[in-house]
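Note to self: the last two entries modelled the partners one at a time, which told us nothing about the interface. This time every component goes in together.
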Amino acid sequence: MVLGIETSCDETAAAVVRDGHLVLGETVATQIEVHRKWGGVVPELASRNHVVDIVPVVREALSAAGLGFADLDAIAVTRGPGLVGALLVGLQVAKALAYAHDKPLVPVHHLAGHLHAVALHRADEPAPPAPAQPFVALAVSGGHTALYHVEGERVVQVSNTRDDAAGEAFDKVARMLGLGYPGGPVVERLARGGDPTAHRFTLPRFKDGAADFSFSGLKTAVLTIVKRAEALPEGQALKDLLASFQFAAVTQLVDRTLKMVETHQVTDVVLAGGVACNGVLRTRLAEGLAARSGRLHVPPPHWCTDNAAMIAAAADAEASRRQGSGHDPADRRLNAVGAWPLGA
Ligand code: KG4
Ligand code: ZN
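The predicted structure of the combined assembly is written out below.
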């Protein structure tokens, strides 16, 4: 029985998860409205709002689960990567609770959390099927776009973005078109009525043939179209531009992922992170894998974006991984880390 706490960005979240998959109670307090008028996350505002929200959020998650601190076996918390000031709020609260209630404290890597979200379900839902091992995982969010080869607890990064993250590209494109923050959901909604072939954007290629990602060229290509026009595109022109942008972004994600599936001779793919909410990405990746007799594993949208159930779900694997590498999971001097590669 693990209490998970997540405050790495603009969501204050707590959840109680049993056996690494069964979600007994959870709360996510989003700060989207706080940051919207600034067009992106303001780190100082994020930290201050975490301070206000964290205690009620933890209480609510426990009460939704019908449990008290005495029922917990451990407290798991996101240690990084993320905004350091934001991370510190969750980390300090988790350390205080672990100390006060004499529970082990498990520091969790935020992306390891995202990858564990595929196991989550509620009591009235069947457990989702486990991916066939080894598998390839695509973590795609506002801060990360990376592919991993996963075998048991061994996670090796096999591809990364060379510039922007995919979610960042959705957010920046939405911002330049005056569509607000976060960009992904509004871009997906407007793109539904657009023609994805209206603009053709080229897929980035690297001389060394690496299956790395790059989204800054795509963002600049959209910006060039916007600047050339006399006014911001509206109506059908806006929908066509967004559908074409989304098509190009998704094509790149699917292309690189399927390349890694072939390179590593795996069948299954785990898709996670906020951009995994995107319906076009989910459908096209699932189709690409089905054509190769493979299978896509992706959480429902509410567990793709930041949440604490995924952090609690990752606790077991993270605890044994860190013990294996000589870290003490109960170390109460633990600090937050802003930049922290997964699989290092
Ligand atoms: O995982 P997440 O909640 O936070 C990070 O760890 O970054 O991901 C947030 C990102 C944002 O960039 C947001 O625009 C993007 O996920 N996102 C989407 C969609 N929903 C959220 N991107 C594309 N399509 C969506 N439907
Ligand atoms: Zn995230």
